[in-house]
Write a structure and sequence with these properties.
Order of helices and strands: EEEHEHEHEHEEEEEHEHH
Pfam family, one: ETF
Function: The electron transfer flavoprotein serves as a specific electron acceptor for other dehydrogenases. It transfers the electrons to the main respiratory chain via ETF-ubiquinone oxidoreductase (ETF dehydrogenase).
Helix content: 25-40%
Distance between the termini: 55 Å
Keywords: Electron transport, Transport
Protein name: Electron transfer flavoprotein subunit beta
Oligomer: single chain
Radius of gyration: 22 Å
Domain Electron transfer flavoprotein alpha/beta-subunit N-terminal: 23-213
Largest sheet: 7 strands, parallel
Number of helices: 7
Strand content: 15-25%
Length: 260
């Protein structure tokens, strides 16, 4: 069983995130970055599948040089090897271009039985790349899995919705996106951290994948940030003393602002 897990290097959600003033793209240089939390669930699920049988887990990411840290974290968790697609022309790519680069990288890795992704990234939170990637690869996509099992060449997921729960199967090879309800990602052990230093990581450019630079980047993007503004500072709230009519004052306050 050969599994590819697609992960993303994202700005730390606890940091003060902003955009580059020059082109309105996400600032990934002046803020601490890390492996997207939602992708840790994908890494963990792939490791569980391999540990229950045999095979290897390859971690794939697309991003700047610093994105190597996302691969490092996944290798420390237990993944076997990593692939980092890095090229200056990728800067500003949207979900369409990202899915293209990922698809060509998966094809180059070759002989893949299962592609696993998180349900979305914690920076873009679009959640569309898994389906786009599956379409480009010609694979069945079973998404938003809160439970996953692989047996006899078939992947079976449980998808929990607001009103019902679905059980969906797909014949391998397939792509599965997982939610944050599927498992509890492990913390890298000291042994895992040390072992990760010896695990292979390949770095590929667009040329290595046969992707034309004109197909990616900000100029080719279907979606762009037109403008942005800093979040206004919080203002002091209004204190309403209760002199027997506090309830009426609260109702009037909410009604005035059309909250009720």
């Amino acid at each position: 069983m050969n599994i590819v897990v697609c992960v993303k290097y994202v700005p730390d959600a606890q940091a003060e995130r902003t955009f580059n003033a020059s082109d309105n793209t996400t600032d990934r240089e002046n803020v601490d970055g890390l492996l997207s939390e939602l992708d840790e669930y994908a890494v963990e699920e792939a490791l569980k599948i391999i540990e229950a049988g045999e095979g290897e887990v390859t971690v794939l990411t697309v991003g700047p040089d610093a994105a190597a840290d996302a691969i490092k974290k996944a290798l420390q968790m237990g993944a076997d090897k990593g692939v980092h697609v890095s090229d200056d022309a990728i800067h500003g790519s949207d979900a369409v271009a990202t899915s293209l680069v990922l698809a060509e990288a998966v094809k180059k890795i070759g002989d893949v039985d299962l592609v696993v992704t998180g349900m979305a990234s914690t920076d873009g939170t679009m959640g569309v790349v898994p389906a786009m990637l599956a379409e480009r690869l010609g694979l069945p996509a079973v998404t938003f899995a809160s439970e996953l099992s692989v047996d006899g060449g078939v992947a079976t997921i449980r998808r929990d919705g607001d009103a019902s729960t679905q059980t969906i199967t797909a014949t391998l090879p397939a792509l599965v996106s997982v939610t944050d309800q599927i498992n509890e990602p492990r913390y890298p052990s000291f042994k895992g951290i040390m072992a990760a230093k010896k695990k292979p990581v390949e770095t590929w450019s667009l040329a290595d994948l046969g992707v034309d630079a004109a197909q990616v980047g900000l100029d080719a993007a279907w979606t762009k940030v037109e403008s942005f503004a800093a979040r206004p500072p919080r203002t002091q709230g209004e204190i309403v003393p209760d002199e027997g009519d506090g309830g009426a004052k609260l109702a009037a306050f909410l009604t005035e602002r059309k909250f009720v």
